[in-house]
Write a structure and sequence with these properties.
With about 550 residues, the protein is mainly alpha-helical. The chain has four domains: about 80 residues, Aspartate Aminotransferase, domain 1 (Alpha-Beta Complex); about 80 residues, no CATH class; about 80 residues, no CATH class; about 260 residues. The chain has 18 helices and five strands. The chain has a three-stranded antiparallel β-sheet, with no helix packed on it. A two-stranded parallel ribbon has the order 4-5. Strand 2 and strand 3 form a beta hairpin. The longest helix has 30 residues. The chain is elongated, with a radius of gyration of 33 Å. About 0% of the residues have low confidence.
Length: about 550
């Protein structure tokens, strides 16, 4: 039901407050309702619609608390009313602690899907915030086996016994209800670090705090999520602004993960120091971002050039490979592959917020990168495996003749490699638009400038490739494809490490290296690249030995 007033005037007071009918109801309330209800306003509600509330005397109020503590959908939203009526006609109440009910399960599944994080989750339904606090207190103590709890002065958590014990907003709330729960300590919210250190040093051992559960897997998960959700999506604009600062931020988060993994138990003090350092670096980057107005243009330019140049090199090498092999009719399949990646990238733009969030984004990028690397190694093997053979051109013509009747692998290689870059471009530009509200024109200009420069570079490479002899072009193409594949292997392993799927053992400064070449100083990344390089060189060496053996005249 919609509440109307002359010229839609709200608020509209027709009587003094409280009105006569409201005063009657308030008098009756005072005789039967508990005095623990602390009403601060003489408002006796009759009905509501949206953010308009009407009292029993016909006074209209603009209600800024509509749906307070429940759902901020306003009063009597038609969809909410319809849902309640539909459910009431089926079943008004059942005990979810004793029986199963489909709507309850469906709501839990929806909440698991909507809440942040990729870890396993379970839902506990509560009637109020106070009941939620009680559950959290019990869970923390039960899970950790520790009894002490730290709360903040000024905090209000509810009026049930445990929630009341944690509260620190008004002494009146605890008056007459003591003794409250033991083991509760308080600090000031705006200066927790010094007070925590003093608290732990004097009256509250840190290893007895319920929330300080020494949960190494959960600590690692939170550290990974903090980087993936808070830093990695904004890497493009951060790196364009200050590459050195970006490296320091990455190193700070890597150090945090190393600290969590070190020793037999988590060193809480060391973790707090690492978190403080990372926070300080992020605060500095944010302050710099507010002052530098040119970042969106140059960040967009850098994204377009860096990501575009990688795929341009790869596609150019593939095209040179098929054209110089005498089968230019296969070139359209290469073009078709990377062109198909464009609509796939556009679809990813809309899916990136949900399906490619956090660790799933890194898993997707890592797997696609390694698949692309495998395909490139497969293609380049035909060249590098026969570099020393006298029958090299004959072998190449034979292979390309066979592939010309089955050109689909070329399409697949071009698509996977281009789509892998499309994912990165989408993620970077998504983050850049969020980082730079109102700067869409600068971002578009930077992207257009980068694309124009890229087009000129690609045109130049194509013209140069057409003028060269086939064998040098094929050799260069094979070497380039192999180098790109090894770089992609390093980038794929790195993505899986950042997502927490692969261990990260640093060699020196783990945030250093040459990211554009896929070189990161970690044992897993460099080790995998060395293995791949050995697998590439081994066939070359074997073919050379066989060629030398066949060229040696046999003894009579």
């Amino acid at each position: 039901m919609t509440i109307s007033s002359p010229q839609n005037q709200v608020p509209l007071l027709k009587t003094a407050l409280p009105g006569p009918r409201a005063a009657e109801w308030i008098a009756r309330d005072m005789k039967v309702i508990s005095t623990s209800y602390t009403r601060g306003y003489p408002l006796v509600a009759a009905r509501g619609s949206g953010c308009t509330l009407e009292d029993v005397d016909g006074n209209l109020f603009l209600d800024f608390t509509a749906g307070i503590a429940v759902n901020a959908t306003g009063h009597s939203h038609p969809d909410v009313v319809a849902a309640i009526a539909d459910q009431a006609a089926k079943l008004i109440h059942m005990s979810g602690t004793d029986f199963y009910y489909a709507p309850e399960i469906e709501l839990a599944e929806r909440l698991v899907q909507l809440t942040p994080g990729d870890h396993a989750k379970r839902v506990f339904f509560a009637n109020s915030g106070a009941e939620t606090i009680e559950a959290a207190l019990k869970l923390a103590r039960h899970h950790s086996g520790r009894q002490r709890v730290i709360s903040c002065y000024g905090a209000f958590h509810g009026r049930t016994y445990g929630a009341l014990s944690l509260g620190g907003s008004k002494a009146l709330h605890q008056h007459g209800f003591g003794p409250v729960l033991s083991g509760v300590h308080r600090i000031h919210f705006d200066s927790p670090r010094a007070e925590l250190e003093e608290l732990f040093a004097t009256v509250c051992p840190a290893d007895e705090v319920a929330a300080n559960a020494n949960d190494r897997p959960r600590a690692k998960e939170l550290a990974v999520a903090a980087y993936l959700e808070g830093v990695e999506p904004h890497e493009a604009s951060l790196r364009a602004r200050d590459a050195a600062a970006t490296a320091r931020i990455e190193e700070a988060f890597l150090q945090l993960r190393r600290t969590i993994a070190a020793g037999n138990s988590v060193d809480a003090d060391a973790v707090r120091r690492d978190v403080a350092r990372a926070t300080m670096l992020l605060d500095g980057a944010e302050e710099h971002a507010r002052k530098d107005r040119s970042v969106p243009f140059f960040a967009a330019l850098a994204i377009a050039l860096r990501e575009g140049f990688e795929i341009a090199l790869l596609i150019s090498a593939l095209l040179a490979f098929v054209r110089k092999s005498g089968h230019p009719e296969s070139a359209p399949y290469v073009h078709c592959g990377w062109l198909l990646a464009l609509p796939a990238g556009a679809a990813t733009w809309f899916a990136v917020g949900a399906a490619l969030g956090g660790a799933r984004r890194e898993l997707t990028e890592g797997v696609l990168t390694l698949v692309a690397a495998s395909m490139l190694l497969f293609v380049s093997h035909f060249v590098l495996g026969k570099l020393e053979s006298k029958r090299w051109l004959d072998f190449l013509r034979k292979k390309t003749t066979e592939s010309s009747t089955r050109p689909w692998p070329l399409l697949l290689v071009a698509f996977v490699a281009a789509y892998r870059e499309a994912i990165e471009i989408v993620l970077f530009f998504r983050a850049l638009t969020l980082d730079s509200p109102g700067r869409a024109a600068a971002i578009a200009a930077g992207c257009a400038t980068g694309c124009a420069i890229l087009a000129a570079l690609v045109f130049g490479m194509q013209q140069l490739g057409r003028r060269l002899n086939p064998r040098p072009v094929m050799v260069a193409s094979g070497l380039l494809l192999t180098a790109l594949a090894i770089a992609l292997v390093g980038q794929g392993v790195r993505a899986l490490q950042e997502g927490g799927y692969v261990p990260l053992t640093p060699i020196g400064n783990a945030a250093g290296g040459l990211p554009s070449l896929g070189l990161y100083p970690t044992l897993e990344g460099l080790g995998t690249q060395l293995v791949v390089l050995a697998l590439v060189l081994l066939p070359v060496w074997l073919d050379r030995r066989r060629a030398e053996a066949s060229a040696t005249p046999k003894a009579a």
